[in-house]
Specification:
By secondary structure, this protein is mainly α. The protein is built from five helices and two strands, in the order H-H-H-H-E-E-H. It has helices spanning about 1-35, 40-70, 80-85, 90-135, 160; strands at about 140-145, 150-155. The longest helix is centred in the C-terminal third of the chain and has 46 residues, at about 90-135. The relative contact order is 0.12.
Length: about 160
């Protein structure tokens, strides 16, 4: 049974490692937003996008290994872990269950951190918009015209003041 279960165990460990990498990048993103380090923030966003792709590949690989083990256990390829686990020996069942639980916890933390960062970034943008509005109060409101062009309603800002 070892040779059938080991590829799934390895795939779960890889998926867990990739979620851990994403958590580190999201933690870094929070620090960069707080420090207002926009240059490094753009690099971080690129790294997060790349890590998202790595996670998708790791997840697909794990699903493939799970499907293979399911087939070996005469289950449908897309059977969930709750159907597979009772068919594994105690030794493997406990290890696979622990890895699945850890992956799920890590995924939850990634989702939670992503929501936190989204809120933090939104608040930063709002602060910048208020700052700009304070500097240029007559600049008007930016809107989209029916043809998709950006238009500004109101005064012409600095041009008015210097004319």
């Amino acid at each position: 049974m070892n040779e059938q279960v080991q590829p799934l165990i390895d795939a779960l460990r890889e998926e867990l490692q990739q979620y851990g990498e994403m958590l580190a990048l999201l933690d870094q993103q929070q620090e960069l937003v707080v420090r207002r380090d926009t240059g490094k923030l753009l690099e971080n966003l690129a790294a997060i996008n790349a890590q998202t792709s790595v996670i998708q590949v790791a997840r697909q690989h794990r699903q493939q290994r799970q499907g293979e083990l399911n087939a070996w256990q005469q289950l449908p390829a897309d059977a969930p872990f709750r159907d597979l686990l009772p068919r594994l020996s105690d030794e493997y069942r406990l290890l696979v269950q622990a890895l699945v639980d850890e992956v799920n916890q890590c995924l939850y933390r990634v989702q939670q951190r992503t929501r936190q960062n989204h809120l933090l970034l939104n608040r930063s943008v709002e602060m910048i918009q208020r700052f700009i509005a304070t500097l240029f109060p007559a600049s008007g409101v930016t809107t989209y015209a029916s043809d998709g062009r950006v238009t500004t309603a109101g005064g012409s800002g600095l041009c008015e003041a210097t004319a």
